[in-house]
Amino acid sequence: MSMVTEDTAGTDDSQGVQEAPLDAGAPSSTGDLAEGLQRVLSWNRQDPGLKIQGLTRLLGGSSRITWTFTATGQNNTEQKMVLRMDPPGISRPGSLVLEGELMNAAKNSGAPVPTIYLSSDDPGLLGAPFVLMEFIDGESHPRSILRDKKLEKLRPQLAGMCGQALAKIHAIPPESVPGLATIDVLGQIRTQLEQLGEPHPVFELGLRYLESSRPAPLGLTVVHGDFRNGNLIVGEEGIRGVIDWELSHIGDPMEDLGWLCVRSWRFGGPGPVGGFGSYNQLIFSYEHASGRVLDRNLLRWWELLSTVRWGVMTMMQAQAFSQGTHRSLDTALIGRRVCEVEWDTLALLSSLRKA
Amino acid sequence: MPLQDPPAVEDLLQAVREYLQEEVLPSADANQRVHVLMAMNVVGVVERELVLGPKLEQEHVKALNTLGVNSEAELAQAIKSGALDAKRDEVLKVLRQTTIAKLTVASPAFLERTRKEAELAAQRQAKKAEAAQG
Fold first, then answer.
1. Which of A70, A93, A158, B85 has its CA 20 to 30 A from that of A10?
2. CB distance from A327 to chain B under 8 Å?
3. Are residues A151 and A47 in the same domain?
């Protein structure tokens, strides 16, 4: 989950993923980490001459630390990789290993995901649980996906491709990832809002509507949990990788479709689906690829739920600032942007009333 | 006369924002630039709250009173309990006003953008209706 939205600076100038200074909250010194990686990968690949170069930390996701680097083997083959680690002190044993297993299962199901090379819970290896995966070259910056000339031909097809990728993710046999928890997301939002202890009448009204009009589930499947513009790596030909699987669980597959339509992921683009596509493109392609049948009203209900979910998530991030657990300029602003999500919630509630 | 000497708080904040905009921003690298823009945005929020805050608060309390409640917490509780179910339209009206008041301080650009979008959508609706009649 990328906890800081692209829009945080409140201007179109903000960039999503950036390179951070190497000493910014790094789990250990970069040198130590590079040494650790070299040791682990040399052993894993049986290549004592393997070298690690260009270790660079990426900003963007805040609940995991992400690095990129190039591993050069003895025979001079270069391979660019991504390392994801738990931040120091907030290690959640099992979760990164599970994420790796899930991504493997997604690959077997035919979904576009990076190949997993190695994962481990053993903090003795790199200082914290980690997963090592393939670096996928392509565009992941949401605004570039919406504006880059090179992607002009892709954009009209991208919502349909999202529907196809989601159908493949939802086809992962749940028994192949036994560690995934089953989550009733509506109940989860209610609990989180209560734990926050701040009055938010708009989200109360949203929840009241959702609880009184709950549709029958479309199914019970693996859910990505954060499938949106921002977690897709694309090329001119299509989606190359779906990333950021840390919110995955077992739930209603409609959850992923609703989340993809939340306005915060449109980044100023005109299409309701990720800024690039229409509801119908998403619905038709998903129906065709999954064999499930859904309609526009069902999607609207899940978009409302997802919008309220995002509102509560932003409030949780804002509380991290107020409580001093995560102090930075961007988290300082998050609380003051919850009202944007409230505005979107009200707009949806009004449209549902008319429908 | 207030105790503190001039300049007023608003003017001091404006000086900070102008310094960031005119002195810091032009020479910032890409990474610093985002943070300078965020800092300018934070100062802007505080400036708007200082100037507009008291009036918006007053209007907010008035709007809450039309629903028979005195605070956000009471309103949240009343919605949750179902006590306001029969007044859904009035509740939506108050919530819209409240949210606009928050956006006016925190995110005026967002407010403007969504208003423009809503206008365009209304125009499209009207054209559709016209076409259907003609």
1. A158
2. no
3. no
The CATH number that applies at residue A38 is 3.30.200.20
- Domain count for chain A, please give it: 2
Q: Do B109 and A15 touch (CB under 8 A)?
A: no
B3 φ, ψ (degrees, to nearest 5): -65, -45
Q: Report the gap between the CA of B36 and the closest CA in chain A (Å).
A: 9
Q: Residue A93 gets which letter from DSSP?
A: T
In a domain, A201, yes or no: yes
In this structure, is residue A302 part of a structural domain? yes
B34 vs A304: CA distance, rounded Å = 31
Q: Does some domain include residue A12?
A: no
Q: Does A150 touch chain B (CB under 8 A)?
A: no
Q: Are strands A238-242 and A232-235 parallel, antiparallel or unpaired?
A: antiparallel
Contact: B80, A13; criterion CB under 8 Å: no
Residue of chain A whose Cα is closest to the Cα of B110: A340
Instruction: State whether A105 and A194 are in the same domain.
Output: no
Query: For residue A315, which of A177, A174, A196 has the smallest C-alpha distance?
Result: A196
Are residues A181 and A264 located together in one domain of the fold? yes
Q: How would DSSP label each residue in B13-75?
A: HHHHHHHIIIIIGGG--HHHHHHHHHHHHHHHHHHHHHHHHHHHHHHHHHHHHHTT-SSHHHH
The answer to whether position A115 is within a domain reads yes
The complex scores an ipTM of 0.91
Q: What is the average per-residue pLDDT within B65-89? A: 96
**C-beta atoms of A199 and B102 within 8 A:** no
B-proximal residues of A, 201-240, CB under 8 Å: 201-202, 204-205, 207-208
Whether A337 and B106 lie within 8 Å, measured CB to CB:
yes
Residue of B nearest to A9 (CA): B38
Same domain, A185 and A291: yes
- Residues in chain A closer than 8 A to B75 (CB atoms): 199, 201
A85 plus A171 within the same structural domain: no
Distance in Å, alpha carbon of B114 to nearest chain A alpha carbon:
9
B96 contacts on A by Cβ (under 8 Å) = 346
* CA-wise closest residue to A341 among A311, A298, A314: A311
Q: Please give the residue range of the domain that contains residue A279.
A: 142-354
Which of B38, B72, B85 is opposite residue A201, by nearest beta carbon? B72
Tell me if A245 sits within 8 A of A16, measured CB to CB. Answer: no
pLDDT digit string (tens) for A300-336? 999 999 999 999 999 998 887 777 776 778 788 889 9
- pLDDT per position in chain A (355 positions), as tens? 433 333 443 433 333 333 333 333 444 468 788 999 999 999 888 888 899 999 998 876 557 889 999 999 888 889 999 999 887 666 676 788 999 999 999 999 999 999 999 999 888 888 888 999 999 999 999 999 999 999 999 999 999 999 999 999 999 999 999 999 999 999 999 999 999 999 999 999 999 999 999 999 999 999 999 999 999 999 999 999 999 998 999 999 999 999 999 999 999 899 999 999 999 999 999 999 999 999 899 999 999 999 999 999 999 988 877 777 767 787 888 899 999 999 999 999 998 865 4
Q: Which residue has the tokens 């903090």?
A: A123
Identify whether residues A205 and A166 lie together within a single domain: yes
